[in-house]
Structures are given as structure tokens and as C-alpha cells.
Amino acid sequence: MSKLSHRERVALAFDHQEPDRVPIDFFGNASMMLDDAYFRLKDHLGIEGDIEPIRKGSTANYYDERILEVFDVDFRRLFLSASPGLLLYHNDGSYTDPWGITWRKSGIYVNVECSPLADLEIDGIAKYEWPDPSRMWNTDRLAEQAKSLYENTDYALVARNPVTYGFLDRGCVLRSTTQFMMDMVLNPELAQIIIDGILDVHLRTYEMFLSVVGPYVHMVETGDDLGAQDNLLISPAAYRQFIKPAQTKLNALIKEYAPQAKIFMHNDGALVKIIPDLIEAGVEILNPVQPSAKGMESENLKREFGNQIVFHGGVDQEPQEGTEEDIRAEVRRRIDAFAPGGGYILSTCNTIVNAPPENVVAMFDEARTYGRYPVSS
Fold this sequence. Notes:
This protein is α/β, with parallel strands linked by helices. Helices cover 42% and strands 14% of the residues. It is built from 15 helices and 13 strands.
């Protein structure tokens, strides 16, 4: 097959057909780099000049298209920009976001210090002032940027997840994990009020975003964290009662504004029990298909669901931080498992924490060379 454009390559993979090589993605939802790792890679590649971070309040704040060019990444992202003053910083180093959640950085993580709904009863939660997306974000020059990227490049364009947290994990940081988990069992009416409030913010945010970029994008990112290492964080029944209906409504809105785009969902951990539900809810691309989680063996996922959903990610963290041969072997394993018949986008399995820059280079080099079709089946 002759060399395809980036966009053509991605379109074939999305349609479960084999392009010229496995498409590659980087710097998306949960495929960022912690800042220290980013600067080490940038220096290793000899990229000079600093860029502005695309967000604040995280430990992975940079999106650098110069690195995407070096690795011949097939995707480029569009971001809903945060309004000035979105975060309120305190003298003790903590900060409060528009949801009223106070956070503090600790090492490589940012942890919740105060959950605004933690001590409230149902009457108090009913009076909670949900954040207003029109004050959180702005779309200045976004339409022009989207149109230019669509018309003047051949990349597959992505509407980057603007809210990061999904329905379960947002409920947990608003209410505290322990309390929200108890609510879903002992006080379902209260839990539903919280889910409904989160959904309303999501719907208004995605409507604001996609009303501008929807005609131009090929993938729209969403996310949540429903899985732990060995099982789901909540029962399948609780997922179907509280989370699935909200996901379905959000995905329907996304399709209304971007009917041509595929819906991507980031969702860590052991999810195999609810993958059919995710598909029913409208998820078309599943990330990060974490191979170290129970029941998420790549070969089994491909065999059972490979004709129903596109897999994205898969390159696990431990090999990233091993030897160069470790990471090359990991890339080959994921390509062997996921790539036959199309339907696979190679990327990291979550944000890069501490991988040596040489390993990041080796990962994408192996993806470009070993990922040529036809691959083994």
C-alpha cells in the first residue's frame, strides 16, 4: 500500500481496516508526560525554546507539537481554553477550582484537600452552585484554528477532553470517595442529584466546545475512572444505574454536534465486565486498555470485542521505564495483539511518569517500523 495521509490512515483504522501502518497518538487524554519527563525528552531531542503550558494545576501541563512532528504522530488536538482566573491560589500553596474543590500538589500527584459536598445533606447539596461553563472556558479564535488545521494539514483532529474527570471520579472528588460510594448504596437519591449536576455541566461544556469545532474533528475525548487493578470500582449494577445513563446522554450530544467523529473514552483498570455496556452507551474508542489489569489481556480483548470497538493505548508503564529492548518488545506485543484487521491506535497506557527519553524515542520508532501492515495475526 502506498503511503497514506495521517487522516486517511486513522480513518481506515477507525473503520476496522488495515492502513499502511498502525496509527500513533501522543499528548492526548492520559497520554501526556509529567513535566519533568517532558523537559528531559525535549532536551534529548534538541528542541529549543519554551512554550506556554496548555493548563495549570496539574503535574502534566505541556502539549508540544514539535515533539509530535518528530515522532510522526497522526493526531493533533484542539483545546477549550480556560478563562483567566479559573483557579484561585492560596498562600499555603493549595488552590481551589470552579467546582469548589481545593487541591494540593504532593510529589508527582495533585490531591484533593477539601471536597465541597463532603459534609452536606441532601438539602445542602440541592443548593450547591454548580460551575458555569460559560465562565470557565472561552472559544476565542478556536473556530479559526480548527478550520485552519482541517484545511491546511492532513492530521486527524481531536477535541481534547475539556473536563478531565468523569461522572464517578468527579462525584468522588466533590463528595469524597468513601462518602460517594456509600451514597450510591445507602442514599441513591442524593447520589443521583450529584450525577445529574455533573452531567449538566458536561453537556453545557461539550455543547460550547463542539458548536465551534464539531464539524472539523475526527475524535472527541471523554473520560472517567471506573476500574481498579483487579476489578471495577463499583458494581456493574451501580454503573448501569448511575453512570451509564449519564454517559449515554453525553455521547448522544457529542454525536449531535460531531456526527462524523468517533467517541473516545479514557477508563483505567479492569473494565472487561462493562465493555459491552460502554459500547451500548456510545463509546467507540476505548483507552488505555491497560494490559496489567485483571481480565484486560490484549489478545482476549481483541478476540471478544475487536469488531465492535477501537482500542487505543496499551503500551504499559513498567516497560516504558525498563530497558530499550523492554519497551520495543512491549510495542511489538501490543501490535501483534491489537493491530490485525485494523481498529488499533498505538499510544502509551496512561501518562508517562519517568520513562527515560531514549525509551520514548525507541517506543515510537518501533511503532513506526514494526507497525507496518500486514502484521502477524
